[in-house]
Amino acid sequence: MKQSVFSRTALVILFAGAVGLLAVSFLLAAYERPDLRLGHPAGPGSHSIAATGHAAWYNLLEECGPHVERFTDKSVNYMDSDDVLVFLEPNARELRHERREELFGPNRVLLVLPKWRGVPDKDNPGWVDNVKLADISVPNDILDLIARHGWVTRRTWPTEWRRNEFSFAPSGDVLVQLFSLSGAEPIIGTEDGILFGRVDWSENEIYILADPDIINNHGIVRGNNADLAVDIAYHMIGEYGYIYFDEVVRGHRTRSGRSPLSLLLRFPFVVVTILAVLTMVLVVFAGFRRFGPPRQRRSGLGLEYGKELLLRNSARLLDQAGHQDAVLRRHIDLTLRQTGEALHAPPGLDRTALAEWLDRIAASRGAGSCREIVEMATPRFSTRGTTTEQLFEAVTALRAWQKRVLNGTGQHRENS
User: DSSP secondary-structure letter at 43?
Assistant: First the structure.
């Protein structure tokens, strides 16, 4: 019976660990529940028709003339100097890791700070439910990517704007979100902060819109916000520039050039990939009969395997135990008995009587006597005892005598 490489306890532990890791991978995937900040289809993107989405602004710009395009590639190397890359309420962590090069690279950027948070409506796909103001730390984390000495505040919506370079005033409800940043040039602002401004950062021109209610689906229909949203676009790109809405940071990417197998290397699916690899490795190891190189055969009492080596191993064991004399005497008795059976000797004869009867038959066939051989192997007929070498000689001589008797190769045949 083949013994398993792993004990029952080890197999139970391995199986429990695999099940536990699989459960953890599903829990981790479920923990990142889809919300507005994580790029759900109902979140703040140019595809979203939710109240806090920006599909209306995108469609409005398409109809009013500015060149707009959704950006779903990994690189933005083909952007010109007049083009603007728009980040719609991104998540700070994803913006820092996914699009840091685009944010601080040689691009003109519009950064729309997040303000709202909600979850998708289960009954109405594409809508949001339980929309609430996001914690003030959420937009502050985005602003910290540009400068540590900036901050975001929320104030009562002003009745007039101290600075406004556009013909239309923004309209809002209750609270307005503003930012303050050293070196920022206000384009729309109050004494409390800047609603829309511009800052030069590392040879990069960054526009910041602090309150998304000017351009989101819910707020763009208020007052003159639609006209203001178009003017903001033209202010950034001029007459010939393009506006690229970055959807990579929201999780929207082109499928071309992206293998579905790449998901196996992304979190949380990489946990399942690791489990599968470990399972295959354990299955392969469990199928091995041994580990490492074959061991050298040990000398002494080490046993060998195989039917052909059975007699050799038995002889080694008998030799180690010191039973050679008993085996040789038994072999002599067996040879006499086999010879007697072949020549139809009377039954019940002992060794001496059988040897005398065989001598008579051997004499008639000219094969010689076997009695002297038997007496040499019998201690009571030997004055000095019988050594192992003498017994071996007796066995050899008796086998030769047996062949002569049974095959009839004695002297009488040679003389005939």
Answer: S
Q: Report pLDDT digits (tens) over 90-108.
A: 888 777 777 777 776 767 8
Angle, CA 289 vertex, CA 287 and CA 290 arms, to 5°: 120
DSSP, res 379: G
Residue type present at position 241: G
What span, in angstroms and rounded, lies between the C-alpha atoms of 201 and 144?
13
Cα–Cα distance measured from residue 42 to residue 125, given in angstroms and rounded to the nearest whole number: 8
Asked whether the beta carbons of 157 and 176 are under 8 A apart, the reply is yes
Judge contact between 35 and 52, C-beta under 8 A.
no
pLDDT tens column, 279-312: 778 777 766 665 555 555 554 444 455 555 665 6
Q: What angle do CA 221, 222, 227 make, to 5 degrees?
A: 70
CA separation (Å) from 383 to 333, 377, 387, 401? 21, 12, 12, 24
- Amino acid identity for residue 62 in this structure: E
Structure tokens at 144: 């910290």
Amino acid present at 195: L
Amino acid type, 388: T
Q: Residue 114 in contact with residue 143, Cβ under 8 Å?
A: no
CA distance linking residue 226 with residue 222, whole number of Å: 8
| More confident site: 221 or 66 | 221
Q: How far apart are CA 297 and CA 198, in angstroms?
A: 82
- Determine whether 291 is exposed, middle or buried from the number of CB atoms within 10 Å of its CB (0-12, 13-18, 19+): exposed
User: In the block, which residue shows the tokens 């040039």?
Assistant: 185
Q: Which residues contact 235 (CB under 8 A, 6 or more apart)?
A: 165, 166, 187
Token reading at 178:
């503003």
Min mean pLDDT across 121-130, 215-224, 339-348 is at 121-130
Structure tokens belonging to residue 379? 């201690």
